[in-house]
Automatic annotation (TrEMBL):
The protein's assembly and partners: Forms an energy-coupling factor (ECF) transporter complex composed of an ATP-binding protein (A component, CbiO), a transmembrane protein (T component, CbiQ) and 2 possible substrate-capture proteins (S components, CbiM and CbiN) of unknown stoichimetry.
UniProt organism field: Massiliimalia timonensis
Record bears the keyword Cell membrane: yes
Primary localisation category: membrane
Family membership noted in the UniProt record: Belongs to the CbiM family.
Underlying gene: cbiM
Keyword check for Ion transport: yes
Keywords: Cell membrane, Cobalamin biosynthesis, Cobalt, Cobalt transport, Ion transport, Membrane, Signal, Transmembrane, Transmembrane helix, Transport
Pathway: Cofactor biosynthesis; adenosylcobalamin biosynthesis
Origin organism lineage: Bacteria, Bacillati, Bacillota, Clostridia, Eubacteriales
InterPro entries per record: CbiM (IPR018024), CbiM/NikMN (IPR002751)
Designated name of the protein: Cobalt transport protein CbiM
Localization of this protein: Cell inner membrane; Cell membrane
Membrane disposition: Multi-pass membrane protein
Residues annotated as transmembrane: 39-58, 70-87, 107-130, 162-184
Length: 247
């Protein structure tokens, strides 16, 4: 891709990013909201994320050494995930439904790289958009930046191995990765806030059931949008995606 075209894409992404920061409504703005998890759970989820973040830093370093253009692609994946995950639909108390956008980066760079990109996105959203929180950063990172990308990457590789087209593989990866993020979020909320009578399972059924109403159509839309963006990247960055084994 020509430098001027890259500049236009980066400029467009920055404009969208700026708009998301300053014009996203603040009401019900949260992944799992600040203070909604007990300190023990908050610390535990943060500790679980540490190995994935270390793995991610090494993975990103390796990708950037392969080609400097990979850094621009990685930044675009980050901007894509930031904007999509900032679009919020209020859901169960203490959380909300929204696309995640991490499937694209997981397909291109693998799940480990998205753990680092994801925690940066979540940190900025917590500080700038009141979307999530610092005390729940570990839990939100695990659901959106660890679990979701792992499923997206696995589904993409499995689909390709079974002979699916790239479009189908990317769609399934983005959509199912999105849905799995909310399965994990439901588990996290149910573990922290079990139902008074039915316990963990009753609480999980409640959280997952309410999430499903908004999250299933959102996951389908995210899958379709991710396919569109992926096809554009294949058209202009075929060599880079081939090097990343993302075709």
């Amino acid at each position: 891709m020509k430098t001027t075209t890259w500049q236009k894409l980066v400029l467009s992404a920055s404009v969208v990013l700026c708009a998301a920061v300053f014009f996203t409504p603040q009401v019900s703005a949260m992944h799992i909201m600040e203070g909604y998890l007990q300190p023990g759970w908050a610390i535990a989820w943060g500790a679980v994320c540490i190995p994935f973040l270390v793995w991610g830093f090494f993975s990103i370093s390796k990708s950037v050494k392969q080609s400097s253009k990979n850094l621009i692609l990685l930044a675009m994946c980050g901007a894509f995930a930031f904007v999509l995950s900032a679009l919020k639909i209020p859901s169960v108390s203490g959380s909300c439904s929204h696309p995640t956008g991490v499937g694209l980066g997981a397909v291109l760079f693998g799940p480990s790289a998205m753990s680092v990109i994801g925690v940066i996105i979540l940190l900025f959203q917590a500080l700038l958009l009141a979307h999530g929180g610092l005390s729940t950063l570990g839990a939100n990172t695990f659901s959106m930046a660890v679990a979701g990308p792992l499923v997206s990457f696995g589904i993409f590789k499995l689909s390709k191995k079974l002979g699916a087209s790239s479009a189908v593989a990317v769609f399934l990866a983005a959509a199912l990765g999105d849905l799995f993020t909310y399965v994990v979020t439901s588990v996290q909320l149910a573990m922290a806030h079990p139902d008074a009578t039915g316990g963990f399972l009753a609480s999980l059924a409640k959280f997952a059931g309410i999430f499903a109403v908004t999250q299933i159509p959102l996951a389908i839309c995210e899958g379709l949008l991710t396919v569109v963006v992926y096809n554009v990247l294949v058209k202009y960055n075929h060599k880079e995606l081939e090097t990343l084994h993302a075709l």
